[in-house]
Amino acid sequence: MDIKEFCRNLDRLISSRDLRAEGLDTVIKALCQGLEVDVGEIALFLADEEAGALGFLWPRDLRNSGTIPFSAKDSLAARTYRDGKSLMDNHFSATRHASIFEAFPLKRLGGKAFPIQKIMSVPIRSPQACLGVLQICRKAANLEDVGADFTRTELLNTGLIGRTLARPL
Fold it and tell me: Under DSSP, is residue 5 helix (H, G, I), strand (E, B) or coil?
């Protein structure tokens, strides 16, 4: 995948859509195809500065599940937001973490929910502020079944996608 071309196409796709409404499904579908992940392996969080917390924009099923305080110690999303840095963990299942996103079932795994084995977490930044967090993960019953490790290049590319998503938010 040529990441610059992917981000240009993604930018064109989101420029005519409202990511907080009906346009989100189309954008998530494009991310799934480009990153070769299932819809249940993408999380998109928006920052609520007044509440001091991150809330789910995607998956939709988790929008009303509560929020993650910016200060949460066991949350990779909160850490990504606080530090403003992209993070990758190819042994995430062995890392202490909040696990609400793992309850989201995957179609390719027969509609079953599996633990997150590997994850990339990147800030969604505008030039002025961090607006949220994009996470891409790989889920499977165990580490041996999940596939290849995420690479530094994939993390950098996901960071570019996060910056592309910042414009409409």
Answer: helix
Helices and strands, counts by H and E, the chain: 4, 6
Structure tokens at 112: 């079953």
Beta-bridged to residue 138, according to DSSP, are: 118
Q: Which of 27, 26, 22, 37 is nearest to 7 (CA)?
A: 27
Domain count, the chain: 1
Give the C-alpha separation, 36 to 52, whole Å: 32
**Whole-angstrom Cα distance, residue 46 to residue 31?**
17
For 25, the domain range is 3-166
- Between CA 161 and CA 134 the distance in angstroms is 9
* pLDDT of res. 104: 64
pLDDT at position 15 is: 82
* Residue 50, domain CATH: 3.30.450.40
Beta strands in the chain (DSSP E): 42-48, 53-58, 67-69, 87-89, 116-125, 130-139
What pTM, to 2 d.p., does this model score?
Answer: 0.90
Residue ranges for the chain with pLDDT beneath 70: 20-21, 98-111
